[in-house]
Amino acid sequence: MSGLPDLESARAARLACREGAPRPTSGMAPGFTQCNMISLPKDWAWDFLLYAQRNPKPCPVLDVTDPGSHRTVLAPEADLRTDIPLYRIWRDGELVQETPDATAAWAEHPDLVTFLIGCSFTFETPLQQAGIEVRHITQGCNVPMYLTDRDCRPAGRLHGKMVVSMRPIPAGRVAEAAMISGRTPAVHGAPVHIGLPEGLGIADLSRPDFGDPVEIRAGEVPVFWACGVTPQAALMASKPPFAITHAPGHMFITDVPDTHWQV
Questions:
Q1: Residue 23: alpha-carbon gap to chain centroid
Q2: Are 212 and 145 in contact (CB under 8 A)?
Q3: Where is the secretion signal located (predicted)?
Q4: Considering the chain, what percentage of its residues have pLDDT values greater than 70?
């Protein structure tokens, strides 16, 4: 087990998420897997499971809870209602609240099924270890995320567009960044697009749909990865009656080392 990150750092990071002011989790608990989250009433769970199966690049499922459970095998001591720094509450496809504690909202639907979805933050540590800067970590802000013009494959009552995250990479290291991220397909894997944002229907990189803009320097190329905020785009398009999600960039930190997902 030598060489694995210290589990106490993951637990301390979750404690900070629960008790501190909400902040994006990129760069927290390096070496541990982070997850996107979506919780839906049981009668929508099959639709979403099928949606994720049909769209594995943006929606790679790492765990699914039993109805009503707020526990996950990915971090058995954690509480999914409180251990994410910021939650979103959705009603009929509309974002109605952001809160650091989803306990009250969770109690409204005792049959909620929660999906934990891989996050590209998981491969940021190997990028940094290879000497590739992750700009939003350097700038101390949230990763920029964009709604694209690419349709996800619909499933049941769910449909929507794919969301991507973007990181500027020096042109000479793009292939290396793609190779490093490609080793972890369970957390989005290799990029879905490299270069001109117009190829994804993105008009202006300085105006992300979620997160914060970052500096793109001369000689750098925008590189786009599928993003686990894609389920939130499906909520907006499909309008289920109720859902709880993480706020973009504010992830659930697990006890599972990043290396667990490498192939």
A1: 14
A2: no
A3: none
A4: 98
